[in-house]
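Whiteboard transcription, Tuesday session. T.W. wrote the C-alpha cells on the left side:
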C-alpha cells in the first residue's frame, strides 16, 4: 500500500547511515511501489555537491548495498529523478533559503537528523526560523539518544522547544525488525501463550544478541559507549519490554508505549555479582578490542551479560538474563522463554524430560521454535524425547520472504504514515537511562575491569557461571 507523497530531507545525507541504510532502503520501497512517484528526497549536508553529483553518490550506494537481483536500471533512474541536494550550514545561514524553496505545499514533510546530536538544536531552530517545518512535519532522530539520563533529557528538551512529541520519531531499529514485531502478534493474537505468560509458569527468559563483527572503524564512538550503552539500554531493553509488557488496550502508539514504560520502571538494577563484562582479546589474525579502540587502557566492555528482575505481579521471581557482545562465535539473536516443569510427572522416564522452550529467532533465519516433549517413536515403550515445532519465515512465506522490508525501510514508511508505535517516546528513553546510569556508575566506582574473551568464543567464562550458579545454562550461540 503506497504511503502519501512526501518531501524527505536527510540532514547528513552524504553520511554513512544515509549511504548504507536510508537511501538504499528508500529505493527498495520505491521499487516495491510503496514510495509514490510524487515524492522527493533531498540530501542536505555541508559539502558543495550539485544535484547530479549527489545522485551519482546515491546510485553508488544502491549499487553497493542493494542486492543485484533488486537493481533495475530503469527503476534506479526513475528513483534518482526524485533525488536532489542542498548544501547547508547547520550552524549558520547558508542553504536554508534554498531548502525552503525546494519544499512543496500539500505533501508530508519529514526531516531525518542523521547527524551528531550536538546539531539537533541548531537544525530544529533553523527549520522553524525559515518556516520549513509546519505543524505536521516529522523529525527522525537516531541513537545514540544521549549517553546518560542528563544528556537524554537535554536532547528531549532541545527537541521539545520546537516540536511536539507526536512529531518526534526516535529510531531504535530493532523495533523495525520483522520478528520483533511478530513478538506482539504471537503474544496478543493467540490465546495459547498468555495464560502461561507469567512467573508461575515461566522459569526464566534469555535474550541474546551476538555479533561476529568487532568495533573496527567505530572505536572512537564505541569506546565512550560500550555494550551497555550501545545495545542494552536500547535494543535489548526494547526486546525485554515486548516480552514483559501487559497487553495494551489497542495496537496504538501511546497504548503500546505506556505499557513498555511500565516495564522499564519496574525493572530492578542487577546486583554487581549479576553483571559480567568482557572485552575481546586479539585472535584470528586480528587485533583485540584495545587495538581497535586505540585505547590501550580501555575498560570499556564489548560484551555484557546480566541478570535482572522485574518487580511486578506478573514477573516476580522470573529472572531475565540478557547478553550481547561483539566478535562472538556467530551472528545470532534470539529470545528464549523457558517454561517450568509440569507439577508432577506420570512417566517413569522423568530423566528424559526437558523444559518447553519458546525460541524466537530474530536473525538470521527468522522464525520460531517451540520445544515440546513427545513420545519417542517406536516400540521402545513410553520414552520421552524433545522435538521442535519449527516455523521459519522463509519457509512459511516462500518467495514473499524476500520482500520483507528491512528495519529502516519499514520505519521510514511509518514516519510518513505518521505511526509512532515502533518509535521510542521521550519518557521511555529517559526511563531506560535512569535504569542504566547507576549500574554503569557502580562498575566505574568499583573500578571493575572487563574479563578478556577469545574472539570466536561465546564470551567470558564468568558469563557461564552467571547461569550455572542458578542451575541454568545459556543456549548455545550458533
Ligand atoms: C547498532 C549498534 O545500534 O546495532 C552496533 O550501534 C550494532 O554496535 C548494531 O552492531 C547491530 O544491529 P543489527 O541490526 O546488525 O543486529
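and on the right, the sequence the group agreed on:
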Amino acid at each position: 500500500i503506497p504511503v502519501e507523497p512526501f518531501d524527505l530531507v536527510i540532514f547528513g545525507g552524504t553520511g554513512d547511515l544515509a549511504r548504507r541504510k536510508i537511501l538504499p532502503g528508500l529505493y527498495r520501497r520505491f521499487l516495491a511501489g510503496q514510495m509514490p512517484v510524487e515524492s522527493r528526497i533531498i540530501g542536505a549536508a555541508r559539502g558543495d555537491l550539485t544535484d547530479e553529483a549527489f545522485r551519482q553518490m546515491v546510485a553508488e550506494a544502491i549499487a553497493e548495498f542493494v542486492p543485484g537481483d533488486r537493481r533495475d536500471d530503469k527503476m534506479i533512474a526513475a528513483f534518482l529523478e526524485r533525488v536532489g541536494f542542498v548544501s547547508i550550514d547547520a550552524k549558520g545561514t547558508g542553504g536554508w533559503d534554498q531548502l525552503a524553496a525546494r519544499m512543496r505545499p500539500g505533501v508530508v514533510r519529514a526531516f531525518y537528523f542523521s547527524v551528531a546530536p550536538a546539531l539537533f538544536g541548531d537544525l530544529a531552530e533553523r527549520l522553524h526560523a525559515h518556516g520549513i517545518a509546519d505543524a505536521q512535519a516529522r523529525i527522525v532522530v537516531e541513537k545514540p539518544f544521549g549517553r546518560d539520563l542528563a544528556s537524554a533529557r537535554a536532547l528531549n528538551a532541545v527537541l521539545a522547544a520546537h516540536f511536539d512529541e507526536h512529531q518526534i520519531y526516535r529510531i531504535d531499529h530493532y523495533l523495525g525488525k520483522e520478528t520483533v514485531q511478530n513478538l506482539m502478534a504471537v503474544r496478543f493474537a493467540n490465546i495459547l501463550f498468555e495464560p502461561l505468560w507469567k512467573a508461575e509458569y515461566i522459569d526464566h527468559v534469555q535474550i541474546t544478541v551476538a555479533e561476529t563483527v568487532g568495533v573496527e572503524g567505530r572505536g572512537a564512538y564505541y569506546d565512550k559507549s560500550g555494550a551497555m550503552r550501545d545495545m542494552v539500554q536500547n535494543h535489548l531493553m526494547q526486546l525485554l519490554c515486548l516480552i514483559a509488557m501487559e497487553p495494551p488496550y489497542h495496537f496504538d502508539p501511546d497504548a503500546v508505549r505506556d505499557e513498555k514504560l511500565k516495564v522499564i520502571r519496574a525493572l530492578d538494577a542487577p546486583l554487581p555479582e549479576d553483571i559480567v563484562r568482557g572485552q575481546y582479546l586479539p585472535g584470528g589474525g586480528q587485533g583485540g578490542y584495545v587495538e581497535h579502540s586505540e585505547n590501550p587502557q580501555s575498560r570499556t566492555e564489548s560484551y555484557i551479560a546480566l541478570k535482572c528482575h522485574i518487580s511486578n505481579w506478573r514477573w516476580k521471581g522470573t529472572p531475565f538474563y540478557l547478553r550481547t557482545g561483539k566478535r562472538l562465535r556467530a551472528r545470532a539473536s534470539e529470545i528464549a522463554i523457558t517454561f517450568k516443569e509440569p507439577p508432577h510427572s506420570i512417566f517413569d522416564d522423568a530423566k528424559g524430560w526437558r523444559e518447553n522452550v519458546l525460541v524466537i529467532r530474530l536473525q538470521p533465519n527468522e522464525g520460531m521454535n517451540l520445544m515440546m516433549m513427545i513420545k519417542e517413536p517406536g516400540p521402545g515403550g513410553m520414552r520421552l524425547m524433545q522435538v521442535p515445532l519449527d516455523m521459519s519465515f522463509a519457509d512459511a512465506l516462500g518467495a514473499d520472504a524476500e520482500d520483507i522490508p528491512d528495519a529502516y525501510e519499514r520505519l521510514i514508511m511509518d514516519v510518513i504514515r505518521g505511526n509512532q508505535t515502533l518509535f521510542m517516546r521521550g519518557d521511555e528513553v529517559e526511563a531506560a537511562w535512569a535504569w542504566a546510569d547507576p549500574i554503569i556508575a557502580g562498575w566505574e566506582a568499583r573500578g571493575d575491569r572487563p574479563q578478556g574473551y577469545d574472539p570466536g568464543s561465546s564470551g567470558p567464562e564468568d558469563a557461564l557461571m552467571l547461569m550455572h550458579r542458578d542451575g541454568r545454562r545459556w543456549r548455545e550461540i550458533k
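Someone added at the bottom: Residues 24 and 62 are 5 Å apart (CA to CA).
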